[in-house]
Amino acid sequence: MKVYSFPHGGIDFDDPTAPVWTSSKTAFLPNFAVIPIVQFSENCAQPVVSVGDTVSEGMLIGRRQGPGSSNIHATVPGRVVRVVSWQAAESYNNQAIIVRTGGSFDKLGKPEQTFGWDTLSPQELHELVAEYGIVEMDGSGAPLNDALSAFPSEAALSVVVNCVFDDPWLVADYVLCRERTSAVVEGALMLQKITGAKQIVYVISHPEKKLLALFQEEAKRYDAPSFFVQVRAKYPQRNHSQLELVLRTFEKEENVQLNTLFIQSPATLAAVHDAIKLRKPILDRYVAVGGSAVRNPAVLKARIGTMFEEIFEQCGGFIDDPIRIATGSPLLGRKVVNLNEPVTKNTTAVFALLKRQVGVTSVRTCISCGECRSVCPVRLDPERLFKSIKGSKQEKNFSRIVECLGCGCCEVVCPSRLPLSTILGAWNKAKTNKGE
Ligand code: SF4
Ligand code: SF4
Q1: CA distance 345 to 39
Q2: Is the CB of 407 under 6 A from ligand 2?
Q3: Sign of the alpha-carbon dihedral angle for 261, 425, 312, 72
Q4: Element (H or E) spanning 243, and its range?
Q5: CA-proximal residue: ligand 1, atom 3 (nearest)
Q6: Atom of ligand 1 nearest to the CA of 416
Q7: Which residues of 163-194 are buried (b: 16+ CB within 10 A; e: fewer)?
Q8: Measuring CA to CA, which residue among 21, 42, 43, 34 is closest to residue 96?
Q9: What is residue 286's three-state secondary structure?
Q10: Cα 186 to Cα 179: distance, rounded to the nearest angstrom
Q11: CA-based Rg of the chain, rounded to a whole angstrom?
């Protein structure tokens, strides 16, 4: 089977401090669940409970209010004790409903009732996705309902299952794929029905042969057109634009038509499955916990709303004071300033690093080594763009800055530790906010 790759740049990223790629552990239940009602932007759900109310597991506690927000459900049973808000670092203003855990669980430890979906119409399936507050769980947190509504129903589509693991901090999604293969496949079939997509395309990183075999075996059980594409695990292959590049090459070489691509992560697809087949909102998620400061890195299946402090404690705590705590990946992580911040629907990983892992952080002068250019997957010149932003003179080709993927490759390889992608990303964000 041919292994595809995007044509230019990228890096092979490894990190021995990420959890090993084996299995998940179920995290302890939180004493207090800090359940965010903002998922994606400052568009928050409208709370439908008040302080002092008793809530049951899976009960609706926040109702979506238009695009950017999604329905919010209690992830534990108990009593609402507070509604809080805080400014997350490098992010939007967040709000959460705090529930003190207590009483009996309606779902945890109970046999799961399943609901057939063959006879449901695409519209009915779509409504279930909206009702159970499904969001894109690979980091964006955007409501899936918005993405589904944005696609015209007549568009020829392919649902793409993004099983590309180009970053060791994607281990939680990998473990989910191994443990919940059938849910991921059925979730993809459900999205195929909602969108009217012609086929499902499974993109799997090489050399995950076992994972490929698992998906092939599972997909065979259904009478749905499917393609399997293997790609190199070079970062940022998982990025949607890089994924699209290789799928367009695949299309040409295999003489098939994939048309518009609807790319989703395995975690999102498993959540779609749970909403439709189990009538269950997102109560928990797989989270990778690790970094050099963490005693026992692991993949935890943690309740949404569990505070990071408890998550780290369950992994043996810190071996020494961390110099950096963040979510996501060390390549592009978002800083965590308060360990009371909770696991959200889109927390893929949380890590704590010792000084030795962070290394030299002081910024030096550019030595014009050209490393940043050689790894840029879209062939930008990060050095010149950076200098243009910092100086007053805009270099030739400055307008290409909008093509920056924000992947961070240039910044990682820069021996002078210049914050290249950070500055480029901030510039693009400021322009977008101004509507330019
Ligand atoms: S990698 Fe850093 S030091 Fe090298 S050219 Fe780019 S900005 Fe300059
Ligand atoms: S962050 Fe932007 S400039 Fe830097 S390597 Fe990625 S795409 Fe290129």
Answers
A1: 8
A2: yes
A3: negative
A4: helix 240-254
A5: 366
A6: 3
A7: bbbbbbbbbbbbbbbbebbebbbbbbbbbbbb
A8: 34
A9: strand
A10: 14
A11: 22
pLDDT of residue 435: 66
Pairwise CA distance, residues 418 & 415, whole Å = 8
**Centroid of ligand 1 to alpha carbon of 165 (angstroms):** 27
The pLDDT assigned to 108 comes to 80
**Which residues, including other chains, have CB under 8 Å from residue 55's CB and lie 6 or more apart?**
49, 61, 74, 77, 78, 79, 80, 99
Q: How far apart are CA 28 and CA 309, in angstroms?
A: 12
- Residue 83's pLDDT is 93
Ligand nearest to the CA of 242: 2
Cα 165 to its chain centre, rounded Å, is 12
pTM of structure? 0.94
Q: Which two tokens stand for residue 122?
A: 């695409």
Residue owning the nearest CA to atom 6 of ligand 1: 372
Ligand nearest, relative to CA of residue 372 = 1
- How far, in Å, CA of 410 to CA of 376, rounded? 6
> Which residue stretches of the chain have pLDDT < 70?
40-42, 89-92, 153-155, 360, 392-394, 435-436
| 414 in contact with ligand 1, CB cutoff 6 A | yes
Note the pLDDT of residue 156: 76
* Rounded Cα–Cα distance for residues 97 and 172 (Å): 26
Output the pLDDT for position 432.
Answer: 74
Could you tell me if 208 and 166 are in contact, meaning their C-beta atoms sit under 8 angstroms apart?
A: no
> Which one of 1.10.10.10, 3.30.1490.100, 3.40.50.11540, 3.40.50.300 gives the CATH number of domain 3-14+111-277?
3.40.50.11540
Q: Is the CB of 412 under 6 A from ligand 2?
A: no
The model's pLDDT over 55-77, given as tens digits with 9 standing for 90+, comes to 999 999 999 998 889 999 999 99
> What is the whole-number distance in angstroms between the Cα of residue 379 and the centre of ligand 2?
8
Going from the Cα of 99 to the center of ligand 1, the distance in angstroms, rounded, reads 49
Q: Are 423 and 384 in contact, with CB atoms under 8 Å apart?
A: no
Atom of ligand 2 nearest to the CA of 382: 3
Q: Which helix (H) or strand (E) covers residue 62, if one does?
A: strand 60-63
Q: Are 28 and 303 in contact (CB under 8 A)?
A: no
